[in-house]
Amino acid sequence: MNNELEHHSEPSFGSVLGGIVIDARDLLLRHVAQALLEVRYELRNGLIAAMGLGIGLGIFAGGGMLLMLMLVQGLATFTVVPLWACYGIAGSALVVLGGVVLAAGRTKVEKLDFVPQRAAQRISGNTQWLTKQTTSDKSHKKPVKISRTRVRR
Length: 153
Hints:
Layout: E1 5-7, H1 13-78, H2 83-110, H3 117-134, E2 149-151
Antiparallel strand pairs: 1-2
Helix pairs in contact: 1-2, 1-3
């Protein structure tokens, strides 16, 4: 059994600083990649919501137009209101209905979050930390001593 201690030379300050910079860069790249994934997810949700709104609005508009034509013909047949006024009444009702549908769609679009706040906060915090670590005041600098010893048994 060999109980000798192996002493390795201490790494240079440049290699330690280089390792820190590489680790910080990798961390920031991972956070940026995660933020991009979150943005893609939100964009996909936005696209699905927009497609649903568009298809629903199209079907609703088609059915509404047929119902309005029926209403116009019914008004013209059973009342003394002229046909042009019946179309005016039906058109006004469609304008009001369309405004309500557009307002509902607008509120859904406003709820979408295209810039994920959590990812932006993480990246901002990491860059602030990295800036603080790499720009230190020389009067408060303490020597960094890193020793690597291995014990073999």
